[in-house]
Amino acid sequence: MPTTTKAFNGFQTKCLHAGDHRNKSGHVTSPICLSTAFEFPDTAEGAKRAADIEADEFYGRWGSTNAREFEALIAGLEGAEDAVCASSGLGIISMIAHAFLHPGAHFVGVHACYSETKILLESVTKQLSVDATFVRSDQVENFAAAIRPDTKLVFVETPANPTLSLVDIEGVAKIVREQSEAVLVVDSTFASPYNQNPLSLGADIVVHSATKYIGGHSDVVAGVCAANRTLAHQVREKFSFHGPHLDPFAAWLLCRGIRTLGLRIRQQNENARELAHYLESHPKVNRVYYPMLESHPQHELARRQMRGGGGMICFEVQGGMEASLRFISTIQLSKLAVSLGGVTSTITHPSSMTHNLLPREEREKAGITDGMLRFSVGIEDADDLKQDLEDAFRSI
Ligand SMILES: *Cc1c(COP(=O)(O)O)cnc(C)c1O
């Protein structure tokens, strides 16, 4: 079948065509291939595929044609040579930790991140006898103080879930290069590939919980990372033997979600910016956290490393936890639900619903207060979302 060889640069064009060479069927939309085994034309070919973990037509746990098409799309969107997907965001983060950490090594992580990422990295480092240092991530000096010659992995998240504090990717990458041979990993879930491309800023690996913006429709759990061929291969090796493979149907749903990624994120950026301004000027709101607000303490950095602020807003309603909970229980259009990045707006209370597994002291280190609300802005019309918020404010 003819495949696209024409060069193209537009983000939304890549969303549609970056994986073309992986769809060998000639169908405009790839068929779902559920087969877990593939007939070899001869014994030599069987042996060849068995020796090549990149082979997509060998055995289901090693990957599928649909998963490879998804990986090619992500590699295209992140400007990477290759990508590796897994059955969840945490699954791919776990594979990265196992690929680059070994007993006696040193690890640097951050306080401000998705709570279960922190719990996972704490547990993996403990089990592998890896010395771990967690830093406050909004100042590069903290990385300079923590990174050592034996640091093998540095894992950051920007913007952070849920506080939207940022990490200066370029600044940290420079320190990592100067002080170690560590692999720098950036969890870019909140930004999506549209708003931020960490590899172009010096990171080695970019990670996404594809459950969020990449899938975009709140109907699939998946994770993916993108990197150069060598690093991606190291992750794929771990992945093939640990076994968190992505189901072909899930991969197909992700490819379908990506077709509208550029359109969705543009709308979410626009909605969120408008709502962030609205919230900031509201008399019943204490504080709003959004990278593209001038009041964000790292606004200049946001403008430097992000194309848009994304669809996540964090804010505090006056009156602390009680008022915040009352506020979200009267919201109607936005769903009271965890997860984020879908086309439908959702709103959640991090300290009791997403970051509840962290002890209070850890939540404080991550900057999470009891009155904080996390708003994942969808693609509804901004005026309707604003009206929904206004009605909720009136009721408290
Ligand atoms: C949700 C999330 C994860 C975990 O991804 P799953 O797909 O739920 O395993 C990791 N990082 C961030 C920033 C997230 O929001």
Topology at a glance:
Layout lengths: L10 H7 L25 H8 L14 H14 L3 E5 L2 H12 L5 E5 L4 H13 L3 E5 L4 H7 L4 E7 L11 H11 L3 E5 L4 H4 L9 E5 L13 E5 L1 H14 L5 H11 L2 H20 L4 E5 L9 H7 L6 E6 L2 H11 L4 E2 L9 E3 L1 H4 L6 H6 L6 E5 L5 H14 L1
Parallel strand pairs: 2-3, 2-4, 4-5, 5-6, 10-11
Antiparallel strand pairs: 1-7, 6-7, 8-9, 9-12, 11-12
Helix pairs in contact: 3-10, 4-5, 4-9, 13-16
Bound molecules: pyridoxal-5'-phosphate (PLP).
The site of pyridoxal-5'-phosphate has 15 residues, from helix 4.
Spell out the key features of this protein:
396 residues, alpha/beta, 7-stranded mixed β-sheet, 16 helices, 12 strands, binds pyridoxal-5'-phosphate
Folded structure, characterized:
This protein is α/β, with parallel strands linked by helices and 396 residues long. The protein is built from 16 helices and 12 strands. The protein has helices at residues 11-17, 43-50, 65-78, 89-100, 115-127, 140-146, 169-179, 192-195, 229-242, 248-258, 261-280, 299-305, 320-330, 350-353, 360-365, 382-395; strands spanning 82-86, 106-110, 131-135, 151-157, 183-187, 205-209, 223-227, 285-289, 312-317, 335-336, 346-348, 372-376. The strands form 2 sheets. Strands 1-7-6-5-4-2-3 form a 7-stranded mixed β-sheet, with helices on both faces. It has a 5-stranded mixed β-sheet with strand order 8-9-12-11-10. The protein is globular. It starts with 10 loop residues before the first helix and ends with a helix. The model has no long low-confidence stretch (mean pLDDT 95). It binds pyridoxal-5'-phosphate. Residues 88-90, 114, 117, 157, 161, 187, 189-190, 209, 211-212, 221, 223 line the site of pyridoxal-5'-phosphate (PLP).
